[in-house]
Amino acid sequence: MSTTKGNGDGDKNIDEWKTRVPYRIHEKNEDFEAIYEASCHCGRVRYQLSKDRPLDAKYCHCSTCQRLHGAPFQWAAIFHKEDINFTHGHHDLGWYDSAEKTTRHKLPCKVSCAYCRTPIMDEGRNMILLFPTLIKFNGNKENIAKFAPSCHMFYNQRVVDIPDGKPKWTGINDQSDLIEDSPPLLKRKRDAETKEAEQEGAHVDSEKK
Prior knowledge:
Blueprint: E1 3-5, E2 11-13, E3 36-39, E4 46-49, E5 56-60, H1 63-69, E6 74-80, E7 84-88, E8 93-96, E9 109-113, E10 119-123, E11 127-130, H2 141-145, E12 151-153, H3 184-208
Parallel strand pairs: 5-12
Antiparallel strand pairs: 1-2, 3-4, 4-7, 5-6, 6-11, 8-9, 9-10, 10-11
């Protein structure tokens, strides 16, 4: 029987991943209320969402996202894995591990349509990052606004300036420095936290001497 490696845990049955979230197909009698529908460019891969808004949404300007999306930045919305239901084509998906540059399903990994190559999502160990441009909003600006990004990440790698007043981080949000036109109050707060951490570190070092 054919096997494939999944999630780095050794050999797995080639169909086992289809029974786990986010790929498990919800039966019609299950408690899954579809609010949005989305699809890749060719339409072979289609899915539904059961939440009306993401946990968060962000713009990522890292060079990896720029290259893989062929765009200046990635617009990603964070959902729980249980929030998505593939209705078509979950067997037509391809994987890519950008760290090891392999095409096996090892988390975290990037997921795309194996036919038209549209990026579908980034699958993490606990969450998924979906791309709102695949969702059929049908021009509903109120729903589109629910996916508005809260910040920019890896903004120092940007290829275009976006002076929108949102927080702009040099790396992961809340784990790096704020730059450019980030909100002044937030930047001052972050600078104060960094200074306090540095002072505490210096105090600890002096006590060790």
